[in-house]
Amino acid sequence: MSAYDQHFLMSTEEAMAYAVSYLKYFPADAALECREIGDGNINYVFRVSDKATGRSLVIKQADVLLRSSGRRLDTRHSRIEAQILAYYGRTAPEYVPALYDYNEAMCAIAMEDISAYRTSPYIHGVNGIGEYQMPEHHREALSPLPAWDLAYEKIMACPEKVTYVALGSLTNVANLFCKHPDVKPRLDKVVYMGCELRGNVAGSQCASVNIFHDPDAAKYAIEGGVPFHICTSSQVTDHVKVTMRELEARFGGDDWRDRMILELFRYYFGTTGGYDDPVEPRVSLHDPSTVMYLIEPQYFTGRRCYCGIETAGIETYGYSLIDIYNLEERPESEFNIVLVGLREDTISALQKATMGGLEAAIHQTC
Asked: How far is CA 39 from the centre of its chain?
């Protein structure tokens, strides 16, 4: 009788043992590491890798109890997921991770590790800040309200028009517009880090990652009547970079907020390939440089044009059509975005200002 003929919830140590003794994916003497990379309520997802070779796989296990409440849970969904993976592995293998094994007793799926595709949880960590654990008093929710309802409450209470800055998918913005359309006249604009003039990232050949997470929401929001000022990576955020040496010089103090920034960026350097440059490793300051468009507008340019989001085609799902030259000959009244650019002679000054802005923001808000 195998140790894996009866269900038990695996720990990270047990997941490594499972990968060796049951799956036989690694040799017995391999130096393994394992971390839980899922944050769901039903499944536990482990990434097991060999420190020496980099070879890795993912184990996704369903438990018999709901993680949050301890309520009993039907585990048949795990078998159905494995069957679907097997089916698409035969019919469309380029679109799904390879299925290595399914253990029905353990409710455990072993599959190809697709971290190389650099999804958001891989780049930023499951918690969004490189797995850094905030001090206890910073972990409470700001409000019991959903994000769109809280945003509506805050915007409507403001006596002046508000600029909404969106640095991820546009799901919350779309919900805000859908559930509270009366908020639109109270918004001056939405400053958004997303869209692209060319196909580029994570999971899609033609959609920027922040659009790809929820293309339908992006389409609804961007075409919703509120002006969008869009900072793309190719036009703006990929040009504002920082080295680890510069970060250590500015955030090398004993303050916990400085340590947090350094830990976050060390994680980010590792997942984005920032360490790959042998001369001067550097990474892009995507989020901070987008915020700087509001704080230091003198470093930026802007061009009004039309942007649409493709949601019909499978291959082009999430594509952002930025008609920068107005090839469709639309009237200016249909231009719905300002495509933000950089003044090339001020990029160096913007990089320094962005670092200062990042430091001020962290120390003033945390």
From this structure: 14
pLDDT in tens, 299-316: 999 999 999 888 887 677
Q: Which two tokens stand for residue 194?
A: 């997303």
73: Cα separation from own chain's centroid: 29
Amino acid found at 13: E
Q: How many CA atoms lie within 13 A of 72 on its CB side?
A: 1
- 328: Cβ–Cβ under 8 A, 6 or more apart, which residues? 306
Place of tokens 């010089």: 249
Contact in structure between 183 and 156 (CB atoms under 8 Å): yes
138-172 confidence digits (pLDDT tens)? 556 678 889 999 999 999 999 999 999 999 899 99
DSSP letters for 200-247 = -STT-SSS-HHHHT-HHHHHHHHTSSS-EEEE-TTTTGGG-EEEHHHH
Rounded Cα distance, 259 and 265, in Å: 10
Q: Is residue 18 a contact partner of residue 4, using CB atoms and an 8 Å limit?
A: yes
Match 């559930």 to its residue by tokens.
Answer: 179
Torsion of CA 285, 287, 292, 295, to 10 degrees: -150
pTM: 0.70
